[in-house]
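ARCHIVE CARD
SHELF: 3
SLOT: left
DATA:
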Amino acid sequence: MRVLVTDPIAQEGLDYLRQFADVDVRTGLKGADLLSAVSEAEALVVRSETQVTADVIEAGSKLQVVGRAGVGVDNIDVPAATRRGVLVVYSPTGNTIAATEHTMAMLLSVARNVPQAYASLKGGEWQRSKFVGLELRGRTLGIVGLGKIGLEVAKRARAFEMELVGYDPYISAEQARAAGVELLSIPDIMRRADFITVHTPLTPATTNLIADKEFALAKPTLRIVNCARGGIINEDALAKAVSSGRIGGAAIDVFTKEPALDNVLVQTNGRIIVTPHLGASTEEAQIAVAVDVARQIEEVAQGRQPRFAINAPAVPPELAEILGPFLGLAEKLGRLYTQLTEGQIGPIELTVGGDIAQHSPAPITTAVLKGILEATSDQKVNVVNAGVLAKARGLTVTEKRVYDIDTFESLVTLQVGDTLVAGTVEYGEPRIVQMNRYRVDLPAQGQWLVARHQDRPGMVGKVGTLLGETDINISGMQVGRLTARGGDSIMILIVDDPIPDDVLERVRAIPGVGETRLVRL
């Protein structure tokens, strides 16, 4: 694999990449230079500086994965990557403690006026009364975003004996209470909090989450901290609120555009503390995120699902061993369906039964769609863009879980119109166990000749003889029928060699042989 690294990452990450890849480190690339460099790369590693736009994704015609050595991906056009089938991976846990501790440092600094007092003393002044601060104990901290970092901040704030309130639409009141946090709305937090810290991703829903309207509700003593992403707090509104005395101060580590030398928050004098995006800047965090992303790129190179892919169905590491064989089975079911039928693809029905019904069917659905679309699309199809391509084609999938089944421990059934195929996993190997109304037991691999025929003596022999005469070896065979002797039957011959079109036509010409298809799994 050829890996292009365009932002500085820890040497340990580079060393790990070089164990399995050809690594090209070219930091600071922009414009045409970046487009040219990415054209030959199969993996791109960035931090926050490189802007991975749709043009960069388009130029990277060989790209398989973009790795962000950090937690945020707002500098990566994830929808563009998804459309092109490019995985986007990141490291959501590597800098959690670093960002948490910087948040606490900023919280204490804004409470006790540490940077201002330092600058004053260095400037030759001794003005203790000018920098009287606030104690954290007994005061209310509002935490906006209760993910990993938000919850770690809550844990440390409790040690300071603070009262905790929070906002996060994706966490239950029970989960919040377990962390010692009372869930409130943003307006209620603004009214009640003495300090606020934000820890959400930057999305359309969180852009300008706190602006003029929210600041109008705040206590005049409020201090606000942002070590998450620039733009969550409206910068102009914050500068105005601090300058006018509407709130007491702010501590800001992140900005809408970086470097931020001309940013209004940097230029505003007085009670706004600023640092140059240091939240993840510890030696431990830099090593952790670099190595974590390098490991995920290695997983992609080996054809495995990375642990933290933004734009692919998540399979937790503890479930990968269980679900992995079923993902392969599901993809084979999708391929099998396309080779057993013709015409428009109708509504797709997917049923997972037995033990695997205990888990989300989303990864299995994606694998089925990949198998179906690979045979019907001229675009590169993988687990990243299968759902997007299916939606663009108007394909719908109905998922169903059946917890109690009689025949197998687990079963995946795919039905599209009148065509039904089903499979299971035995001893780690995917097997096909049903094709339409016929019960079968076949390995989900190899090349098959599938022929409907009249159930009468000699039919299988005639087909086998013809294949033998053309030097095509049969390595396996299965025959099934629906009714009593003489009715409709099916033969499935597993062959070692491709069957030429002229031989297939001769098979179809045998009296009593009906619909005949070749299947390649």
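SLOT: right
DATA:
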Amino acid sequence: MTDAPWQAFPYPAPSIWIIGAYIRISREDGNDESLSITNQKKIIGEFLEKFFKEPYRFQGFYIDDGQTATDNNRPGFQAMIRDVREGTVNCILCKNLSRMFRNYSDQGYFLETFFPMHRIRFITVSDPRIDSYLRPEAMEGLEIPINGLINDRYAAKTSRDIRDTFATKRRKGEFIGAFAPYGYKKSPKNKNRLIIDEEAASVVRRIYHWYVYQGFSKNAIARRLNQEKILNPTAYKRTKGLLFCSPQSSQNDGLWSAASVSSILKNQVYTGTMVQGRQTVISYKIHTKIPVPKENWFLVPNTHEEIVSESLYQKAQELSRRHTRTPSGQKGPYLFSGLLFCADCKKAMTRQKTKGIVYYYCRTYREKSRESCTKHSIREETVSQAILASLQVLMEQSPSLPELLDAVLQAPSGPPALSRLDSPDEAIQKDLDKINRDLDRLYEDWKNNDISKEDYLRRKTAYESRREQLRALLKKETGRQEESRLSESSPCLRKFLETGTLDQLNRGIITTLVDRIQIHEDGSIDITFRFSAPSSVLHPDMEPLLP
């Protein structure tokens, strides 16, 4: 061995090289066998066996599967960098520069600054061949930066081509995501098409029903789902064998939150409209995601079967825009939250309870300026009576009202189940039967040596956990069979339909039928209904005045 390489190396050489080999393949590499992980391992192994002459110890492989080299936030790459900083490796091997870098600036930083600073010998096995120990002068030539620039431009072109392809698919309404939205799954026959996952879809239907028709807050919905041991979307996908992950996956406890409920209530995909392109990365080098303005989203209607109707979805959006809040200790908003407004300044009314009586006042007068508006005070009971009286009159005058109320009565409620089956408990029993069949097949696969024992035990545990959840749910549902499947508002609505009289109101009835209530200073009330009927103007004496 000559002394020349040691003299050119800018620091004393170690007595033994501790080698780490970096391997990467990207999605764009496709089925190119020459770039496969197996082939890269083989090439590096042959190089060490035939051409590496100095004493060495092989530390191991750092592998990134399906990762782009334009971003350094790759698990394998970051593990390698940690070992470099900790001094557990002093020599890095890779097949060629493009496996490690497709970002020209990153290549310059690591080859010219980071690796020399940490005394790392860097070797590429294929062209351009690099060895910062045996041929340190090559690091100062033009071949390496030119190759890096070519790799960078190739990455830019590939990124542009992929974006164009994705944009074309999005315009055609083809689903291009890695995982289907909660409530759907990818069609086995066409991965770009969504089909309904009935088990999850029934949960989505319940969320919309509770929010729109029964006045539940998002927090109350989350609490109820958690009480019924229903897994949140992330945990549910994992029980189905999907390797779903997100930036917060490691902290996911399987529980629902108001945020997860809100995301379902905002997602237009449940109406049968494909919604894509809501986020984008800054560039092919900077993979941080940023939101895209709504006018630039890709929306294609009627691409898949709806889970909720367009009208129900729009009602949920309108309720969300009202910014109703849930008071402490309550499961949902107050009776008139987000619906009651001052007729003069148009601001929302504020609520106050005094000696057991609930009053509403103009918020501008109460909280901002008594010169800008007047009191507009009114009792909650008075507003309720005004709405009840109006509905009783409108029942006689509006032919559309019975049909609307009947639609509310028929809205789906109850535990997650297949809405197309005769009963919820039948749907749960079918899920249980399917899990039992899957467990039988899993056992046969293990006995036939089609899967390992470890894989068998892992999947068996997941199946049994889901089976216990379904059994608990079935027991609870069986206890409900003697109860009505109708919503909480159904008894009084049924009476209204049958007799034309309505004795009491609840949040579900009000949000379904009433769009806006305005209070005048003289105590008169304007009520705007959601259906085709004239606004009613009611005075404190409760005599309805209809045009």
